[in-house]
């Protein structure tokens, strides 16, 4: 059942070219300029005309929500707030006529997310569910939604659900951006074309597995880890840190790279591994200076870079390459090496990666 892999987590990491493809199946066709989500029809106009989108989720799904904040603001020009479901439900949140709620949940059973939906519904909001498990409580409680179609995720640490969530949320943002005209026709086609190539690019990103085993060997005894990213890759830094802490029990924190000098820089010394997500996007020059700041304090830099980047190679102790893609879709590639790094470190530390201590696959109590 693990398909020859030693753990479900590794199987699910390697399944991502397929699960992402499945999340797009029958939905994207770049050559026809076609993009459609069958589950979002009746309330499609509500989404297109939303004055604000409120995203509610927990954990890794909340990280996918943070990526969606960049996607919807960039592509569809809709203001977005991303809320921890557990915080949202116990506030007295303001929900107005033009607001739309998107709930993201792999299991569709997370108690806080479900309660957040019920609260938002009681205040008149329209709810779109983005779930993996068909027929789950959250999918039933939503007015409309889109399934991930990623297939069952067994490993407690979420991997293929995250990439399918980002893929579905990107499709939603692109549909809205196209309808609203906040992206041009050529930008629309370029995004669809890039989406279609993502599965093969993920396949390529997975080829760094052997190199990551070697890197894991070097860092398996670390006490702490810092993850830095900017823009679309800031949520990926949070996700990388969460993956590492939950399965290897190494303390890890993710930060937007520029926040480093507002505190965490004090932690950097020759013992501190710093994983920097540094693809060649709009923040490239800025993140290069962040790498230099870490190096100046003897921090050990592992950088995730765009294929062919030689500049960062000269500065970082290790560089892991991912293929180039549209900036908005980069999280689908940059998260792959971070999943693998956490997996290998955890295995080397003798941890039970599929069932980490104290964690449950779906958190049905608050
Ligand atoms: C992290 C992880 C958790 C879940 C969170 C939400 O790897 O698995 O943080 O992401 O419990 O679960 P869902 O998406 O089922 O609502």
Quick recap of the structure?
The chain is built from 13 helices and twelve strands. The protein is of the alpha/beta class and 366 residues long.
Walk me through the structure.
The chain has helices spanning 8-14, 16-24, 44-48, 59-76, 85-88, 111-122, 137-141, 160-180, 185-205, 209-219, 234-248, 284-296, 331-348; strands at residues 28-29, 34-35, 52-57, 80-84, 99-105, 126-131, 144-147, 224-229, 251-256, 273-278, 300-306, 318-322. The two termini are 31 Å apart. It contains 13 helices and 12 strands. Helix 2 packs parallel to helix 8, helix 8 runs antiparallel to helix 9 (185-205) and helix 10 crosses helix 13. The strands form 3 sheets. It has a 5-stranded parallel β-sheet with strand order 4-3-5-6-7, sandwiched between helices. It is an alpha/beta fold. Fructose -6-phosphate is lined by residues 58-61, 105-107, 110, 113, 157-158, 242, 246, 362-363.
The biggest beta sheet, please?
5 strands, parallel
* Backbone shape: globular
Order of helices and strands: HHEEHEHEHEHEHEHHHEHEEHEEH
Strand order of the largest sheet: 4-3-5-6-7
Segments where pLDDT lies below 50 for 5+ residues? none
Catalytic activity: D-fructose 6-phosphate + L-glutamine = D-glucosamine 6-phosphate + L-glutamate
Subcellular location: Cytoplasm
EC number: 2.6.1.16
Protein name: Glutamine--fructose-6-phosphate aminotransferase [isomerizing]
């Amino acid at each position: 059942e693990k398909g020859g892999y030693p753990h479900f987590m590794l199987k699910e990491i390697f399944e991502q070219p397929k699960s992402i493809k499945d999340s797009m199946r029958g939905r994207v066709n770049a050559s026809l300029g076609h993009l459609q989500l069958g589950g979002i029809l009746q309330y499609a106009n509500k989404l297109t005309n939303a004055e604000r989108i409120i995203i509610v989720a927990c954990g890794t799904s909340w990280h996918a929500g943070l990526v969606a904040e960049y996607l919807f603001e960039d592509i569809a020009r809709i203001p977005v707030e991303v809320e921890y479901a557990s915080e949202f439900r116990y506030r007295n949140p303001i929900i107005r006529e033009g607001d739309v709620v998107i709930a993201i949940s792999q299991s569709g059973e997370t108690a806080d997310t479900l309660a957040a939906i019920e609260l938002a519904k009681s205040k008149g909001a329209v709810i779109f569910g983005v779930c993996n498990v068909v027929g789950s409580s959250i999918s039933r409680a939503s007015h409309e939604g889109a399934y991930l179609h990623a297939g069952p995720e067994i490993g407690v640490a979420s991997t293929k659900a995250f990439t399918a969530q980002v893929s579905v949320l990107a499709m939603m943002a692109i549909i809205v951006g196209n309808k609203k005209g906040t992206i041009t026709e050529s930008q629309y086609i370029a995004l669809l074309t890039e989406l279609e190539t993502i599965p093969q690019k993920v396949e390529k990103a997975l080829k760094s597995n052997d190199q990551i085993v070697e890197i894991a060997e070097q860092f398996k005894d670390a006490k702490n880890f810092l993850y830095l990213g900017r823009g679309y890759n800031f949520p990926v830094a949070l996700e990388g840190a969460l993956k590492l802490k939950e399965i290897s029990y190494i303390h890890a924190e993710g930060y937007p790279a520029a926040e480093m000098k507002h505190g965490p820089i004090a932690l950097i010394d020759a013992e501190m591994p710093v994983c920097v997500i540094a693809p060649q996007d709009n923040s490239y020059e800025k993140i290069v200076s962040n790498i230099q700041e870490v190096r100046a304090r003897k921090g050990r830099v592992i950088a995730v870079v765009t294929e062919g980047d030689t500049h960062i190679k000269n500065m970082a102790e290790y560089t892991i390459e991912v293929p180039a893609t549209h900036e908005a879709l980069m999280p689908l590639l940059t998260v792959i090496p971070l999943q693998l790094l956490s997996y290998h470190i955890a295995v080397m530390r003798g941890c039970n990666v599929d069932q980490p201590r104290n964690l449950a696959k779906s958190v049905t109590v608050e």
